[in-house]
Structure formats: C-alpha cells, structure tokens
Amino acid sequence: MPPTGWLNDPNGLCQFEGIYHLYYQYAPDDCFGGDKYWGHYSTKDFITFKNEPVALFPDCSLDAGGAYSGSTIIKDNKMYVYYTGNVKYPGKHDYIHTGRDHNTIMVISDDGINFGEKVCLMKNDDYPDDLTLHVRDPQIIKNGDHYYMILGARTNQDVGCCLLYRSDDLVNYKLVNRIISNEPFGYMWECPDLFCLDGRLCLVCCPQGVEPMGTEYQNVHQCTVFCLDYDFRENTIRLNSQFPEMVDRGFDFYAPQTFLDEQGRRILIGWMGIPDAEYTNPTVKAGWQHALTMPRLLHMREGRLLQQPLEEMKELRRDRRDYDFWELGKGVETGLVFEACLSMESCSDMCLTIRDDVTLSYEDGLLTLDMGTSGSGRTRRSVLLEQLTDLRIFSDTTSLEIFVNDGLEVFTTRVYGDRPGMRIKGKCCGTVSVYELSGFIYE
Ligand code: FRU
Q: Model pTM?
C-alpha cells in the first residue's frame, strides 16, 4: 500500500546487491491519482519493508506531467532505469493525437536511492509515423550481446502493439521490429514485459479496448500473456496463439512487472487495482487507494503460466489449524487475515464461503468468485476448469489472492467486508489447513 495517496503500477523492480527495490507509480497528495512520482520500498526478505525516499519526481520539462512507468536493468554494478516522461500541453487536445509528449528517459543509479541526470533517449519524432502519442512503459531485456527495449503503443488505426528496439550500449536504440497480433487485439498495449521462462519467450502486456468473450476478458482492461517464437538473429516474430491467456481472473490486477532475482527466480508483482473500473475502494475515505500484490514465483507448465506465492510468504505463518472438509462445513471462524490451503481428494461441486458472503463455487466445471455484498461494486468472475485440485487463499484486511490448481489460475481482488467466517459445502472431500498470518513489517 502507498504510505498515503495513490499507487498504481510497480516500476523498476530488481534485486541489486542483495536488496529488492520495488518502485511504484505514486501520487502522495491525491488518492485519485495526479502527476505520478516513483515511490520506493526496499526489502531484503519480502517481510520487512523500508519506505525509501521518492526516487523520481516529475520535475523537469521532459516529464512535467508525470514520471510514468518503466523498468530497470543492471549492468556493471549500476542500475539503468528507463521510464516514460509524460508531458501534457494545455489547450483543446484529445491527448491521443495531439497535446502530449512521451519521452523515453534513462537515469543511472549506483545505489537505487540517488539518481543521475535524466537523459532523453527518444521523443515524439523518433517513434514510427503511424503511431499515436501513446507510446510508453519501456522495458529492457538482454539477449546475447544485445539489449532490447520494448515499448507499448497505440497506432493511428487504434490497434495495440509493441515496439522492439535494439541497443549495444543501453543508450542508443534502433527500431528492429514490432510485435502485433494477427487480428487486432485492443487499441493500446500498456506495460509490456518480455521475458524467457523455462525455455519459452513470454510477453505479458495490458491490452485496452478488448471485448469480453464468454468468461474471458471481463475487466475493463486486460492483463494477458502471449507465448511467442522470436528469432533474435533474423528478427522474425510469431505469436503462438490468436488470443492470449489472462494472467489473473480477479477484479484488481493490472500492469504487473517481472524480474529475475539473484537466485535466478522470475518474480512477478502486479498492481492490485485497475484503471477506469466502475467499482470503488472505500479506503479513499482514509486518504489512500490501491496496493501491490504479493510477489509471485513464475514458471511455465505445459505451455501455461504458473504463479505461486514466493516461498518467503511462509514466514508470515503463525498458528495453524487443520480440518477435514466436513468439519469446515460446520463453520469455522478464522479471522480476516489468514492463509488457507485446501486440498481436494474429490470435488464435483462445492461452495466455499471465504469471509462475509464472499464465495468461491465450483459447479459444472466453472469456478466462480462471487463478491456478495463485500465488493464495493465488484460482482462475479469465473474460469472454466476441468477439475479443481487445490486452492491457496490469502485473505488480508482488504484483499484476496486466490491461487487455484497449484497456481495455474489466480483471482486477485480487493474486498471490503469485515466479518470473518469460512465454511464449505457440496460434493467434495479433502482437507484444509488455515494459518493465522502476521503482517508485513514497515520500517
Ligand atoms: C498503466 C499506466 C501506464 C502508465 C502509467 C501512468 O496503469 O497507464 O501505461 O505509464 O500507468 O501512471
């Protein structure tokens, strides 16, 4: 959560000399957004967090309208940080075709706390002519001797895509390709994140303007993953599927970033929020809004993205209680802050009350999260599942992160009811362990 005010995308995630740096889009004075800074937490263990000074301010003509999202790559013991400097000009503009600068900016840091001069690497005239003024959110990966920068973009025809630039020195970039779906998939792709995972190349990005298809793409904006074949020598690209998979099934998940830590783990953290949603967050009464997700370890399994809470989260566990499902049928008070691990021996249908009247039900192969009266406008989200084998549920005061079938699906949502009470009914048998959880520590 932000110390105060507004938080959105995680930015610049990295581990540098043992310390994890979590930057994020931050508007400290305005819990409805505003000009974005880069807020900053650091942690050594994902349990104790230090609130560091703001890393980047929108303080010059290159980024006067906000230091927008970006990423970090480490080279020769230095952090190279890239972000979009947003500038909006007063006047009659739609800010899509006119009225905006979108500068790709680099800053270097030796310690993650102090940052050097802001260097503008690309400005409006440097991007391809057929694009609108929506080109942003640089991310860098290394392949062989080259670095690649990927940017999210919107064309004049309102088609979302990514631009791929190559560099040998992290400073000069040349456009080498464009990643685009066979059929248009939304009008804008925000926050692209390209990475290799267990031998596959994945592109996570956030397409806007996609119509719902059955249970898919129900949120106002999407967060999806494409697998792709990319020949870095020939610069040929092939997306493996027409439609990408959803990264998360809940109401509040957007703009995640991944990074490789010093142990070689591919870790994902998302924004537990979404822009332009109809539902609300009553936390605004207390002067703040939104949060980041827990860190998640990523793997590929049979061509699909697997997300699991990072091992470190087990350090939060305190008292443990074990039940058979039939005992849980009688109703068990667990408090609001808990981790529940359910393992199904069999399950043809079930209805699990998580807290208040928030339920997760499985019927006819459909797993549905229903927010009851606790959603502040959030209603129902579903996913088709051939079988339900296990659930791992993290319930915090105002959030739920539900990992399904070992992490093949995840539901992330804010939740605002305050009555505990977990129970299960239906044709299912299995066991559940409920752990009380301690809070994260903020220094
Ligand atoms: C995604 C996003 C990014 C942008 C940032 C601004 O949520 O719109 O595309 O850089 O937020 O805060």
A: 0.98
